[in-house]
Inverse folding.
């Protein structure tokens, strides 16, 4: 049986405007951004438990502040076996090249990896979904949105399943 990997592509939560801080890389989450990440992290934890695989095997995180903060909130709720900062998944990252690397890396890691998450930014997350599933067009990601894909690393194929967005109470 071929290896299947569930991939959760997560956009960071709402962040402070770049103009206020004079730098995109240092933008932190807003209080609302932290709330929306927490709500979506709780949804993901519940979903993983329902799948009888309650932990992420691998979490790849952009080095930018808002993505690292999103990952911190996520890992406070979702058990994560291995977390790695990845400089290739910034807003300017090349989604096609990263998709190729991801398929090769998943083949290398083998069957012990079944659940993977990526925390990144627009437009990278949108282009990544389209690069992994050639039948999908780039989609708009709401902040803290989670796209679920099923990957078949041996065939270098992915299938977009759905976008999950849980809204925090106002």
């Amino acid at each position: 049986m071929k290896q299947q990997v569930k991939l959760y592509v997560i956009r960071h939560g709402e962040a402070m405007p770049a103009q206020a801080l004079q730098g995109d890389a240092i933008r932190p989450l807003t209080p609302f951004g932290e709330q929306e990440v927490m709500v979506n992290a709780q949804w993901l934890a519940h979903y993983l438990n329902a799948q009888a695989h309650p932990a992420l095997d691998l979490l790849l995180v952009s080095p930018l502040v808002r993505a690292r903060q999103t990952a911190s909130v996520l890992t406070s709720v979702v058990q994560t076996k291995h977390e790695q900062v990845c400089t290739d998944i910034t807003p300017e990252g090349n989604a096609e090249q990263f998709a190729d690397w991801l398929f090769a890396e998943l083949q290398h890691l083998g069957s012990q990896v079944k659940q993977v998450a990526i925390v990144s930014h627009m437009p990278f997350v949108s282009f990544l979904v389209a690069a992994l599933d050639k039948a999908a067009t780039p989609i708009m990601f709401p902040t803290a949105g989670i796209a679920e894909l099923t990957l078949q690393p041996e065939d270098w194929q992915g299938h977009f399943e759905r976008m999950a967005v849980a809204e925090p109470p106002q």
Notes: The chain is about 35% helix and 25% strand. The radius of gyration is 15 Å.
